[in-house]
Amino acid sequence: MRRRYYSGSDLSRAVTIEDLRRMALRRLPSFAAEYLEGGGEDELTLAWNRDVFKTMRFEPRMLKDTMVVRTSTTLFGSEIASPLVIAPTGHTNVFRGGGDAALARAAAAEGIPFTLSTMSNTRLERLADEAGGGGRRWMQLYILGEKAVRDDIIQRAEDSDYEALVFTTDVNVPSLREWDRRQFRETSKLSLPALLDVALHPRWIFDVLVPNGMPKLVNIADFFPDELSSSDRALALVRKEFVPNVTWDHVAELRERWPRKLLIKGVLSPEDAQRAADAGCDGIVLSNHGARHFDSCLSPMEILPEVAAALGDRLTIVIDSGFRRGSDIVKALALGAHAIMVGRATLYGLIAGGEPGVRHAIGILTSEVERVLGQLGCVGIDELGPHLIRTNPTMPHAQPIGSVRS
After folding, report:
1. Please, which residues have CB within 8 angstroms of residue 350's CB and are 6 or more apart in sequence?
2. Which of 60, 259, 310, 324 has the fewest CB atoms within 10 Å distance of its CB?
3. Which residue has the higher pLDDT, 164 or 228?
4. What is the pTM of this model?
């Protein structure tokens, strides 16, 4: 029987992340939906990020007392209620007005960290106030052509008591997102069909456009006031400033400059994981950037066991890309990850229901983690290990992405 999903407007009826996804896509005009869902080129990696979990199956242990199951764990010496971190996402406010703050508030309420993007629409100094204070805040950093820009963001993040700096390494060579070419007739100017589709989404217009217009890249606006005065100039600026000369010298510079936790995001080889440890990084994020940039790329899950076996006692290992179920999360934890970054999953909740929707998404994933732990015969994350996973070496064929977005 074909699985059925809920796609209405009653948040309480959403029982899976897929339900929230379908609710979210109903609210968005096509260009915003493609920005949320799209991947690079043929989107093979986008499909593979989900398919890879099909190669891994659980081997449970029976007759264990699992009356009380704990989903909490320790991350950088402090407890988090669930093994989740909200990933950095740029232009979040294009999905829902005040999106950055809503995500941060939900993360704080649910006892997990939130990561703000360099390309966010909320100034990093204002986030704590807009999010109601409290919570664990991480700052994501892109290295742009202007050194003064990154120096400014690092200093501001330090002054604003951000716990960690997350340096993203995997976007400085431009990607080819073909959906982008189809939605826009030229740089950041929507095609006529896309404009007509915007008109068919009045809820989005009155939530996003009417209050503030198109969101701005406020964290770098002081350096590029003219270029960031309009969305088309902003996109051209970003393409110009992402230059492909980022090297390990930048990591050494950041380690010397940043006094708190430093994570390198975009690691996809054991060799790079080793170099990050040798460079004094506190953690890595195994990531293919949600398949948004580099197609025909492996999933972070494929290298996780090797990295964890070699470096799990030297580095905090965070992983992202493709996580939609509690079972996905438990598989990663069993194979050696310390926490999972979730991006699209919590964005679906944001779009479907604002801050309550984000909390609902976190709650869905946490309850699924708790259930899977109990079914495995584990009362806590510390009891997980690779002995609970059987891997099928036959990799399933990546389905056309239409089947993923259906």
Report:
1. 24, 92, 95, 96, 99, 102, 103, 357, 358, 361
2. 259
3. 164
4. 0.93
SS (H, E, C) the chain: CCCCCCCCCCHHHCCCHHHHHHHHHHHCCHHHHHHHHCCCCCCHHHHHHHHHHHHEEECCCCCCCCCCCCCCEEECCEEECCCEEECCCCCHHHCCCCHHHHHHHHHHHHCCCEEECCCCCCCHHHHHHHCCCCCCEEEEECCCCCHHHHHHHHHHHHHCCCCEEEEECCCCCCCCCHHHHHHEEECCEECHHHHHHHHCCHHHHHHHHHHHCCCCCCCCCCCCCCHHHCHHHHHHHHHHHCCCCCCHHHHHHHHHHCCCEEEEEEECCHHHHHHHHHCCCCEEEECCHHHCCCCCCCCHHHHHHHHHHHHCCCCEEEECCCCCCHHHHHHHHHCCCCEEEECHHHHHHHHHHHHHHHHHHHHHHHHHHHHHHHHHCCCCHHHCCHHHEEECCCCCCCCCHHHHHC
Residue 107, token pair as written in the block: 């993360």
* Amino acid type, 307: V
Residues with a known catalytic role: 289
Token pair, residue 334, equals: 């069993």
- Other CB atoms closer than 10 Å to residue 105's CB: what's the count? 23
Q: Phi, psi (5° rounding) for residue 296? A: 55, 40
Write b or e for each residue in 163-172: b if 16 or more Cβ atoms lie within 10 A of its Cβ, otherwise e: bbbbbbbbbb
Q: Work out the average pLDDT over 177-197.
A: 70
Both tokens of residue 63? 């007759």
Overall average pLDDT of the 132-141 stretch: 92
What pLDDT, on a 0 to 100 scale, did the predictor assign at position 145? Answer: 81
Please state, in angstroms and rounded to a whole number, the distance separating the CA atoms of residues 4 and 18.
10
| Tens of pLDDT, residues 338-388 | 999 999 999 999 999 999 999 999 999 999 999 999 999 999 999 999 999
In this prediction, residue 355 carries a pLDDT of: 97
Asked whether 36 and 95 are in contact (CB, 8 A), the reply is yes
Nearest-angstrom CA–CA distance, 387 and 58? 9
With both helix axes pointing from N to C terminus, report the angle between 147-159 and 248-257 in degrees, rounded to the nearest 10.
30
Q: Hunting for tokens 């002081």 — which residue is that?
A: 222
Residues 6+ apart with CB under 8 A from 353: 11, 20, 23, 360
Q: Rounded CA gap, 33 and 37, in Å? A: 6
Cα(205)–Cα(94) distance, rounded to whole angstroms?
A: 10
